[in-house]
Amino acid sequence: MNIDEIKKELEKDLTLAKNIEDLNNLKNKYLSKNGIITVLYSNMKKIPKEEKKTFNLKINHLKDYFNSNYEEMKEKFEKELLADKLEHEIIDISLPSKKIKRGSKHPITRVVEQLEDSLLSLGYTVFDLDELNLNKEDEKIKSLVEDNISINKKSLQVIYPLETYKYNEEKNKFSQNMQLEGLVIGKNISLADLKGTLELTLKKVLGIKTKIRFRFNYSSLGQIALDVDVNCFNCATKGCSLCNNGFIKVADAFMLYPSFLENFNLDNKIYQGFRFNFLIDNLAIFKYEIKEDLRLYENDVRFLKQFDRKDEENEVK
Length: 317
Fold this sequence. Notes:
Layout: H1 3-16, H2 20-31, H3 36-42, H4 52-88, H5 107-120, E1 125-126, H6 134-150, E2 156-165, E3 176-187, H7 191-206, E4 212-218, E5 224-231, E6 247-255, H8 258-262, E7 271-279, H9 280-287, H10 301-316
Parallel strand pairs: 1-2
Antiparallel strand pairs: 2-3, 3-7, 4-5, 5-6, 6-7
């Protein structure tokens, strides 16, 4: 089924929608993970290179058409539902209201949002990526590079949060970790750009007085990598059970090898880039001075509540 046929089917479906439930079913049909429009995007890699730009524009127009109709119809159905309730339901406004208990954001959620805000201000785009699967991740990154650089010949700056898993025998450590990865490809990109991005973001999230240490290391792929540490809040860099050496690792990064760029048919003499990875768990432990990292995943409401106050105190400072 081509895009024009899909649009005809969508138009018909919209005329048949009678309530919000019907609309949500349509949203699932077209824009869910396996929805018709979503699948069109994933099929982009099968389209000949010279046709990709036109194909991409058609999909975007189709998606915009659905979204605009969806919002307009949703507003209409909601007004009809409210009018019906006001007509048939009796509300005694003199009765005292029940106090609604407000939840609190998890420290990991807080750190992810703060990192995203900082990087968005630097021109990055947030991209949704499923739980880490190397093959799927590589495919999606390849699609990103092809769509943004191979076709449009512009720079690429994206970040994507990930849940990762690793084997761990330690009883007081979790095998699940939250990360925020980033990818940059463009012209005249250097190690200075990488270090500047990491330092600016960390000081914006953790505070201007945060001490940052860069160390050269080797990644699991044998590439020269950059490990990024911040001073331990518990021992003032003297060394303790939390950090061992006075610093806590919060990120790692590396410059892209020429072979990586060549895989996307990019001239490594013109294009350069880097990838980075923020370790969200460690950042949360540092920012909120959490001395027992197991508590990050206990979902204790009393534990979570205290971070409302800590963020308010940071805003005042």
